[in-house]
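FORM 7B - TANDEM STRUCTURE REPORT

SECTION 1: FIRST PROTEIN
SEQUENCE AND TOKENS:
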Amino acid sequence: MSNSEKIYTSLCILFVSLIMLGNLIYQKFVSLQLPLYKFELSVGVILYPLTFLITDLITEFYGKEKAQFCIKSAIFINILVVIIIAFMDYLPATEWSKIDDKTFHGVFGYYGVAFIGSIVACYISQAIDVRLYLLIRNLTKGRYLWLRSNGSTCISLFIDTTIVIGVMTIFGIFSSDYIWTLIINSYSWKLFFTICSTPLFYIGVV
């Protein structure tokens, strides 16, 4: 396996891992106080913008097809995880188990709903991100690296945030009273994180 293939495989593994991690831990909400703004968001959102950085890197070096394969791989693996978790949730706990059925279901029982919202949002937004990235690269004739990375990601992240929170609200995971608060806070953090991670993208390209 060449170094190029190793890097691509590593990026795909990291991408899949970040998607799965976000789905597993999204139920906990925290406050992140910065000098000018306090973000109240799910912990699953904190590292999620890195997934767009990864697909942008893959698109830049390996092309559209490789980026789409990475996205589809994440969807397939998450389907397997949903099936496995559903089966484990179905199995009854022993009387001496430190984690009873109710606790286990409370933590992992909503993974399927998170999966639906996350995968629908991920597939649509990542597909748009890849196409926007290539479009901006063609329009700028390969210049302004920061523009095609941040431009495509900023638009795609808003679509992603709206879809995933909308789906979870429909399924009753989030209250409809907080839908716009959640969207604004989540998107604001993702936008902030994306802009701050621009140097990482340049390091990756160089």
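SECTION 2: SECOND PROTEIN
SEQUENCE AND TOKENS:
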Amino acid sequence: MFRIVLKLLVIYAFALPVAKADTDNTVALAKAETLFPQRVDVEYKDESVALFKTGSTIRKKYFLEIYAVAHYLEHAASIDNGISGQQLLDDDGVKQISMKFLRDLKAGQIRKSLLASIRQNTSEKEYAEMSTDVESFLQAIDADVNKGDEFTVCWLPDGSLDAYYQGRQISSINNARFSRSFWKIWFGEHAVVNPDVLLEQLRVRS
């Protein structure tokens, strides 16, 4: 009898955190959904381009909410059967990552985190070929952020990557390899969030 009770307690102990994690994840997704509009418009070659949200989520680390993130895609309206992370990386339309910070962070913390994610998703050879541009991009992140601040990055069809902090452009890197590697932070093999969640709205609609 004692062994049966002990076994049930062990099963319950392992099951309870999972149930809570599922609940927390659902709450987090609902929270992220309310923070971003369904559509944004960006300027590219003197024309306004409409981008549509493909999904949103919250980046967590050690159970702490770091930032909410949403992804936008120019060609979203024409995708009927969903899209994979790899297909997204190959898409030649305008793409945008929008982030809203959910806690105060030092500039050094942001640079360190971004650099680690880029290195995880690139080979040594790839990184060596774009290291100068990586450094230029990171150096532009020179201010601490406050809870509620916004950071936006646009990947343009010409391969360039434009970054904005609080609506002010802080950098523009014209290197398609770097732009692709930067996008892998959220859609690569070692993504910091579940890439499928950032593409969820394309699947729901298909």
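SECTION 3: OBSERVATIONS ON SECOND PROTEIN
The first strand starts at residue 39 and ends at 44.
Helices lie at 2-33, 85-90, 107-120, 124-139, 176-187, 200-205.

SECTION 4: SIGNATURE
Preparer initials: ____
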